[in-house]
What does this fold into?
Amino acid sequence: QVQLVESGGGSVQSGGSLRLSCAVSRYTDSRYCMAWFRQAPGKGREGVAGIDSDGTASYADSVKGRFTISQDNVKNTLYLQMSSLKPEDTAMYYCAADPKWWLLSLRERDYNYWGQGTQVTVSS
It folds into this structure.
C-alpha cells in the first residue's frame, strides 16, 4: 500500500520554473517505479516523466530538455523540476507509483497508486 501527496503547484508566467514534490508513504520496503502525469481541462491524462527504482528516467517528447524527474530515497520524495514553462503545460499534475519497480513507463494503465494532484497554471 502506498500513499502519494503532491505539492508545489502554483501559477507562473511563461518561461518560469516550478518544482513539484510527491511525498511517498509506503508500508513495506518494496521498490516502486514512479511517474508524473498531467491532465489539462477537456483532455486525457498524459504521462510526463517516469523513473524506475534504479533511477533511469524517461520523458514525453513535449517536456524533454525542460523537465527533470528525480527521487530522494532517504526523504521518500519524488520531484519534478519544471523549467521554461509554457502555457500548454497548464494542467493538474499527478504523481503515480506501482510495485513493478523494473518498469519505465508513461502509460496510465501501468500505475495502481495515484495522488490527488496539484495544479500548475502557466500564463503567457
User: Anything to note?
Assistant: The chain is about 0% helix and 50% strand. Residues 68 and 81 are 5 Å apart (CA to CA). The first strand starts at residue 2 and ends at 7.
